[in-house]
UniProtKB/TrEMBL annotation:
<feature type="domain" description="Glutamyl/glutaminyl-tRNA synthetase class Ib catalytic">
    <location>
        <begin position="3"/>
        <end position="271"/>
    </location>
</feature>
<keyword id="KW-0648">Protein biosynthesis</keyword>
<dbReference type="GO" id="GO:0005829">
    <property type="term" value="C:cytosol"/>
</dbReference>
<dbReference type="Pfam" id="PF00749">
    <property type="entry name" value="tRNA-synt_1c"/>
</dbReference>
<dbReference type="InterPro" id="IPR049940">
    <property type="entry name" value="GluQ/Sye"/>
</dbReference>
<comment type="similarity">
    <text>Belongs to the class-I aminoacyl-tRNA synthetase family.</text>
</comment>
<dbReference type="InterPro" id="IPR000924">
    <property type="entry name" value="Glu/Gln-tRNA-synth"/>
</dbReference>
<dbReference type="InterPro" id="IPR014729">
    <property type="entry name" value="Rossmann-like_a/b/a_fold"/>
</dbReference>
<dbReference type="InterPro" id="IPR001412">
    <property type="entry name" value="aa-tRNA-synth_I_CS"/>
</dbReference>
<keyword id="KW-0479">Metal-binding</keyword>
<dbReference type="InterPro" id="IPR020058">
    <property type="entry name" value="Glu/Gln-tRNA-synth_Ib_cat-dom"/>
</dbReference>
<dbReference type="GO" id="GO:0005524">
    <property type="term" value="F:ATP binding"/>
</dbReference>
<keyword id="KW-0547">Nucleotide-binding</keyword>
<keyword id="KW-0436">Ligase</keyword>
<dbReference type="GO" id="GO:0004818">
    <property type="term" value="F:glutamate-tRNA ligase activity"/>
</dbReference>
<keyword id="KW-0862">Zinc</keyword>
<keyword id="KW-0030">Aminoacyl-tRNA synthetase</keyword>
Length: 278
């Protein structure tokens, strides 16, 4: 078993991160497997070295030890670009020049009964899909969901988390209507989260992805990309989210529950485990 923890260095780790890291770490250790650490610093406009240092410090304090070198996404931009080129060459993508405002305007007449938002934000209305724009005219590259489903399905993944336990089969119509043409790369970002995470987990040999339930819906996109790229699909475990007293999920800006704050207040790693129910 190879598990991983993949925080973004854009703020302090909080209790929710501690839960995720400890769960993935403990699962691997329990069976003599490996636990990897990845720094998801794809978004260079938000990633900060001091947050990365704080991640190492907090994890070490928590007793989490990772195997091998840390993988940083910013060291792998070329890998993402190469994988994107494979999809592009097979006609599974298209270039898009829509701004956020264009998408909002085009989405003003939504089709009845269909959701406006999917796991990748507002569902793309399709404006540039048939325009065959060149790279130089585009601001981002999108997956052509219809083509991708024709090529990549059938596909299914196994979920072992509490809320969505069982096998999940991707259905083309659902993917087109509730996910749509997701962004794979932007002019200022070599890969979107979806593309990078699939490449990273494959390159690192991750067998079990353990992460928060908020990412469950995105897993359908990851599974489809794995199928298109002939990469094995890991097992997935989406755990429940740690919430504050009001029932709201913790956010990066929720400094009050930062691990570093608990440390300052004199709590021990065992106290943190108890707080998250481990
Ligand atoms: N970097 C992502 C986050 O901090 C997690 C990615 C993943 O676990 O797939 O939310």
């Amino acid at each position: 078993m190879i598990t991983r923890f993949a925080p973004s260095p854009t703020g302090p780790l909080h209790l929710g991160h501690a839960y995720s890291a400890l769960l993935a770490h403990d699962r691997a250790r329990a069976v003599g497997g490996k636990f990897l650490l990845r720094i998801d610093d794809l978004d260079q406009s938000r990633a900060r070295p001091h947050w990365e240092d704080q991640i190492y410090d907090d994890l070490t304090w928590l007793g989490v030890r990772w195997d091998g070198p840390v993988r940083r996404q910013s060291d792998h931009f070329q890998d993402y670009t190469a994988v994107l080129a494979r999809l592009r060459d097979r006609g599974l993508t298209f270039e898009c020049r829509c701004s956020r405002r264009d998408i909002e305007a085009a989405a003003n007449a939504p089709q009845e009964g269909q959701p406006d938002f999917g796991p990748d934000g507002r569902i793309y209305p399709g404006t540039c899909r048939a325009l065959h724009l060149g790279l130089s005219d585009a601001t981002c590259t999108r997956l052509n969901m219809h083509q991708a489903c024709l090529t990549g399905l059938p596909a299914r993944f196994e979920e072992t988390g509490p809320t969505h336990h069982g096998a999940h089969t991707l259905i083309a119509q659902d993917m087109t209507n509730t996910v749509g043409d997701v962004v794979l790369s932007r002019r200022d970002m070599a890969a979107s989260y979806h593309l990078s995470v699939v490449v990273d987990d494959f390159d690192s040999g991750v067998t079990d992805v353990i992460r928060g339930e908020d990412l469950f819906e995105a897993t359908r996109i990851h599974m489809l990309l794995q199928s298109l790229l002939e990469m094995p699909t890991p097992r997935y475990h989406h755990h429940g989210l740690i919430r504050d007293e009001a029932g709201k999920r913790l956010a990066k800006r929720d400094d009050a529950r930062a691990i570093s704050k608990f440390r300052e207040d004199g709590l021990s790693p065992a106290d943190i485990r108890a707080l998250v129910g481990l």
